């Protein structure tokens, strides 16, 4: 292997120095030597790499340690000589801490090495959290195998699980995690699965840490019809990919200079795989003035880019595809062909190929995982099966649970907990109340003591509670005297029967109403708004609201809740709600005020928003608002179909909008597709039309008060519909828990003038809409405290000084937009988000501007074509896989 020598080595770029310092500390590296015996030192330094390996004992609770057969030990590095095997349980998981949102290289190695003397190579599955990652079949792989991905974790926790799929016992030798830069290895969807990673050299050495700061492993590869060229000069590797300098210091050229350089492979097992290619080039020959090296890249016979490449001298150029590529029938070919004016043959230094791997299944709701872990700890439960994700995959769901499965992109929720006869002692665990969708709870036949907690009665979806056969005491809370609840308490000799039936009866007739001074004031304000607007019909009218944070006053209203709403036909009983949602079977979301379930009314799909009593500030406001909202109809507004207000049960029934919200379609979260610029503009026009209607088309006019990307829902044709308008008057919004305050809106979207003046009017919606537009343009978070300019308007403002629209636009658009329409939309967004409300346009003006942007974009779209991107600035980036291409 050729290494760089000489004086040039001293001239290293700043970027590279930083990384070398980091690399020496192996910052964030997790290097687990699985099954390292407890009596051996940990961590220890692996001699050939200098990596610090540690025992895996603190990362997993199960499994046993083993050691490969002594006759094989000398052939492998120390970390591969021990292993952990899992004779018990179906799924066994490692729990690792990672950084959410950052790219990580995750690598696991498996070597059986006849550790048990049975000479029986195992087969099993590997999972990443709830998602299948790979099937490991060690038959014939006497030297073991490896799985490696580059993946962005969706939380700070990562679970790597081994799942038994047959009679053999899963094993694992090492598990390694390397945090990487954020600006490299991006995919449109999914993660990257290593197919091969080569540097073209006749040497036999595999390069890894410390040559590679991220500890990627580069296999030396060469073909007999190639000629090797090398340099002893330093080759600059400072870009986002930073392959090892040693990998760039050698390259292959075709021996016959007229022939292309060709790499071919076949992947007939998975002919539909999508590929991401990373090609690293550096000119390492001293060219004379009359010599040129220029070549084109060809994929499966087709030119990948219209611009030929001329590699920079002793500096890296990395070429990557922004969109994944496919091969017909799994037969792939990559070629470098010199151009007519080139006097030298093409060259290639290093080459990485990844396939796309999808991890679409959402993990169980994070709060519920915390709650069930808390319950497990409270009772000291140790069940071999309680590993990995509690709910998914469903065939591996934890014992004692049942879960709701809406769809693959919605986090499952726990609906049933059965810990009967589990030897539980102590009180009923408070964490149970955090399983908010629980329908069945069975804690019977344990030794539970203490009182029956009040919170059980407040869990509105609970249908079955079995606490029989324990040693509970005290009286049964009133809140458990609820219709439709099956409560079993027999066999608790010290439990009092509940209060006198007469008292109970009275209590249930009273409907306590908690109204705050604030909400009464809002009601008055709304009336003022109504009267003023009806008179003047001008969209700029604003209304004075009381300042936030007022003490609440409890007012008990003893009147029976006789319906005063005219629209009785829209009123549903609670039992009708239960029926339409099939007993709240399918939860489709969670809003600021409660859960949302899917339902059906007369064959039409509906979304049923269940409001907990505590989330409403007042019953009268509820009715007044419902009354108003039932009369609003516009194609770009989610319409209210009906409501339920039976005793404690409050629910709003909306038209069902099936395709998620705009935020998901900007970030790609929840398995949603990222929408292109043309569709974004259309969605913006439609949302603006909805708002315009609220402002000037409705009688009385309305202010939405909570315009944000998560309140713009999309139907199956990506038609936009605004949700949650007008509700903010009697409900806190945005999941905020300040029940007594009346601050409408969501932080970041809220009109800054409101703070100074206390005025909230149509122009406040225009401000929020401006923020939504900025999000659609940039896909930046509205507020990011880690960003120097934390608010999105500040960020855009500072980026605008650079004048480069490409730096502002959402990178997921991959430059595929008409820049005139982009500039115009950006200017419009910034004028909407003007701190001074008087300078903001009206929604009617916004609609006109956006329509013109859309026309401009649509005319471009009809004439454009996509090409491979060529990024060639200075700052541009196996020992056992068996997947090695063949060359020609
Ligand atoms: C990478 O992204 C994560 C999450 O967005 C962020 O916390 C981290 O600071 C970023 N790191 C770098 C080096 O930009
Ligand atoms: C396993 O590795 C040894 C060298 O360590 C090599 O000689 C042998 O061919 C390898 N076996 C297989 C099946 O790859
Ligand atoms: C080199 O390749 C060209 C074109 O394929 C061919 O015509 C020529 O004979 C080859 N030369 C040698 C020495 O093989
Ligand atoms: C370039 O120039 C050198 C002498 O200066 C000559 O020997 C060589 O043949 C030339 N190469 C080409 C491709 O013209
Ligand atoms: C390059 O050569 C090929 C055939 O030798 C010819 O068809 C093509 O037009 C040439 N291209 C240029 C740009 O001269
Ligand atoms: C879990 O719930 C589903 C319906 O949500 C039901 O079909 C299934 O029988 C339940 N399983 C258990 C073990 O209760
Ligand atoms: C809980 O599990 C026990 C058996 O383990 C079963 O008898 C009981 O019916 C279950 N409870 C519920 C509510 O399904
Ligand atoms: C319930 O969840 C909330 C938020 O996650 C947490 O603050 C609280 O401590 C939890 N309650 C219990 C009893 O675990
Ligand atoms: C409760 O505890 C007693 C001893 O403290 C034990 O004998 C009994 O079996 C326990 N009951 C259950 C249901 O676990």
Automatic annotation (TrEMBL):
SMART domains: S_TKc
Biased composition (Basic and acidic residues): 858-868
InterPro entries (UniProt xref): Kinase-like_dom_sf (IPR011009), Leu-rich_rpt (IPR001611), LRR_dom_sf (IPR032675), Malectin-like_Carb-bd_dom (IPR024788), Prot_kinase_dom (IPR000719), Protein_kinase_ATP_BS (IPR017441), Ser/Thr_kinase_AS (IPR008271)
Gene Ontology terms, MF aspect: ATP binding; protein serine/threonine kinase activity
Keyword terms: ATP-binding, Kinase, Leucine-rich repeat, Membrane, Nucleotide-binding, Phosphoprotein, Receptor, Repeat, Serine/threonine-protein kinase, Signal, Transferase, Transmembrane, Transmembrane helix
Signal sequence, start to end: 1-23
Domain annotation Protein kinase: ranges: 582-854
Bilayer topology term: Single-pass membrane protein
Any single GO CC term annotated in Swiss-Prot or TrEMBL for this entry: membrane
Entry binding sites for ATP: 609
Transmembrane residue ranges: 509-533
CDD domains xref list: STKc_IRAK
UniProt-annotated location(s): Membrane
Record region (Disordered): 858-888
Source superkingdom: Eukaryota
Name listed for the protein in its UniProt record: BnaA02g06930D protein
PROSITE patterns: PROTEIN_KINASE_ATP, PROTEIN_KINASE_DOM, PROTEIN_KINASE_ST
Gene: BnaA02g06930D
